[in-house]
Design goal:
Distance between the termini: 36 Å
Number of helices: 4
Radius of gyration: 18 Å
Number of strands: 9
Order of helices and strands: EHEHEHEEEEEEH
Strand content: 25-35%
Low-confidence stretches: none
Structural class: alpha/beta
Length: about 170
């Protein structure tokens, strides 16, 4: 269960298309493609739109978003659709490039993947485990609890070492 005061993204209602000059949609996986395609079909036919699809939010997807935003003019809106890990990773990139929240629409599919930041080695581990469960860090192999703190800037959940107190007691003895 997610506490009320958590920063964990909560799925909400799918936003209605707003009036804009152009929409640039980036989707990830089959479900992301279906979601974004259905959302784009609701737009007025006079509005320009471009839809690019990727399996994941990898370097190719990031490069496509960067290239499009580098030449963007006022009035463009970005639609990101797919698993949470991919959507929030590219959302963070869009914001670093100058987009604002009102220009980015998120359509998160229920795949459940998330990125976990390890404060011990600074690695990021991708997992499908829910918040509150334990994952092994791919960088330092420490067992991390996936904490209900989500950084929208880095698109990661905070992980903390599951047995930190026990190890501290052992080291002191």
């Amino acid at each position: 269960m997610i506490p009320r005061h958590s920063s964990v993204p909560r799925p909400g209602a799918v936003p209605s298309p707003a009036r804009a000059r152009e929409y640039f949609a980036v989707s990830f996986g089959d479900e992301g493609f279906k979601e974004s395609d259905a959302w784009l079909r609701r737009l007025d036919h006079s509005i320009q739109r471009q839809h690019v699809a990727f399996r994941t939010g990898d370097d190719a997807a990031a490069a496509a978003l960067q290239a499009r935003l580098a030449s963007a003019v006022v009035g463009i809106r970005v639609v990101l659709a797919g698993p949470e890990a991919d959507v929030y990773t590219l959302r963070a990139l869009a914001l670093r490039m100058g987009a604002v929240d009102e220009e980015v629409f998120l359509l998160v599919t229920p795949d459940g993947s998330r990125r976990v930041h390890c404060p011990h080695c600074q690695s990021t581990t991708v997992t499908d485990r829910p918040v509150g469960e334990v994952v092994v860090c791919t960088g330092c192999e420490k067992s991390l609890v996936i904490y209900h703190h989500f950084s929208r800037r880095t698109a990661t959940y905070l992980g903390y070492m599951v047995d930190a107190e026990e190890r501290a007691k052992e080291d002191a003895a």
